[in-house]
Design a protein that fits this description.
By secondary structure, this protein is mainly alpha-helical. It is built from 12 helices and no strands.
């Protein structure tokens, strides 16, 4: 039995979600440019083209807004990465490659917010920092699972699953952290393709490389 949804309520919810996303994007951009400590609610209102009162309808203050910006990108990791990996099928190599690409796409979409996870986490409350660390650990689990599956099947040679998962994550984060350099030479698609090849080249033993040559590119030789 289906439950009817009030079209007016659905429209209001959609507008609220759109407005919240607009505020988070403006906050990430402004905090990255000026530093979180220099951003006021008035300057954010000006950046987003809204009133200060509207911001307080969604967020209780600047600290809550900063936490929301960082949680938003981690939530995107937690949604988009497993989705892309599941769509890639059962092969752990293809799953890991899909995870790398999805990470790069989310980072490109929320580049300012990713930088803030490095610059501004210390300004959060202990509870906020703990929440972020727990979320980061959970969003990495799909990468760990792919690495463990590849290790068990012989597709990967992994010394330490946790360390390798973080290596992969940091490779993708560099698109945000050193964007000034990478954007001069690569599109995000090219960056994702090459970082995938670099990561897999370090994991796939020589006997398996021909099978995954399309992912390894020139490194597959």
């Amino acid at each position: 039995m289906s439950i009817d949804t009030d079209p007016a309520e659905a429209a209001r919810q959609a507008r609220a979600e759109q407005r919240s996303a607009q505020l988070l994007e403006a906050a990430a951009r402004l905090m990255d440019r000026d530093g979180p400590e220099s951003v006021s609610m008035q300057s954010l209102a000006t950046e987003a083209g809204v009133s200060v009162g509207l911001i307080y309808r969604y967020f209780g203050g600047k600290d809550e807004l900063l936490l929301a910006v960082i949680l938003n990108v981690l939530d995107a990791f937690g949604t988009e990465v497993p989705k892309a990996m599941d769509e890639a099928g059962e092969d752990p190599v293809h799953r890991l490659a899909a995870g790398v690409r999805a990470l790069c796409e989310v980072i490109d979409d929320q580049r300012y917010a990713v930088v803030l996870t490095y610059r501004a986490t210390k300004q959060l409350s202990p509870e906020g920092r703990h929440r972020i660390m727990e979320l980061e650990l959970s969003t990495m689990e799909p990468l760990r699972e792919a690495l463990r599956a590849g290790q068990e099947s012989g597709a990967f040679e992994v010394i330490d699953v946790d360390l390798e998962a973080y290596n992969v994550l940091l490779l993708t984060h560099s698109w945000a952290l050193k964007h000034w350099y990478y954007e001069r030479r690569y599109t995000v698609e090219e960056f994702a393709t090459m970082q995938t090849a670099i990561a897999l080249r370090a994991l796939i033993p020589p006997r398996q490389r021909r099978k995954y040559a399309a992912l390894l590119g020139n490194a597959g030789a």
